[in-house]
Amino acid sequence: MLRSYVITRDGAERLLFLLHGWSAEQHHLAAYVPLVDPDERYTAICPRAPHDLDEGDGASWYDRVDGTPVPDSFHAAVAAVDELIEHRSEQFGAPLDQCVIGGFSQGGFLALALAMRAGAPKYRGVWAMCCGVPEVHGLVLDPAANAGTPALIQVGDHDPIIPPDRGRAAAETLRDAGWQVTQAGYDMGHSQRIEMMIAARAWLSLI
Length: 207
Known about the structure:
Elements: E1 4-7, E2 14-19, H1 33-36, E3 42-47, E4 51-52, E5 59-60, E6 64-65, E7 68-69, H2 71-92, E8 99-104, H3 106-116, E9 125-129, E10 150-156, H4 164-176, E11 180-186, H5 194-206
Parallel strand pairs: 2-3, 2-8, 8-9, 9-10, 10-11
Antiparallel strand pairs: 1-3, 4-5, 6-7
């Protein structure tokens, strides 16, 4: 089971899973929880990716070759997060349709993979930052199966790592499949800004 940092809110009936990006760790996105959920409607689950990096204290969700995910490693990460979500859902008595999955960069690709895969359960929403539709051998996607699901897609307009067109294409794919898509771009590179978190707060309050 993935090691996680948990921010428990008494009486919260929903769960917010936040998946960090490459070279970060479980506390990274957790720092934004008070800003995005000031009314404490969500218990936040912030897991640490399984592969510790040699060059620092961060971690990676999956291996890459020439910037491309290694399929077996990517699928293992999807399975690990899926197991975590099911376990925490049972632990806190929050059904999957009361769970929001959010992620940045690598974590965003995983969030989209979990919700777009064929046979995926219904989640309450998906929040994807600086990422796109995952293109991994063996990953079968069926976004129409989750038609109606709210999605927040945020991109860096000057992102040199994940081109913003990939995020915009993800938003278009979901929109065409019948999702309720909120899309926004920001004057930044591959990062997060307070404006993103304020928009996420508004989005979470409406879904």
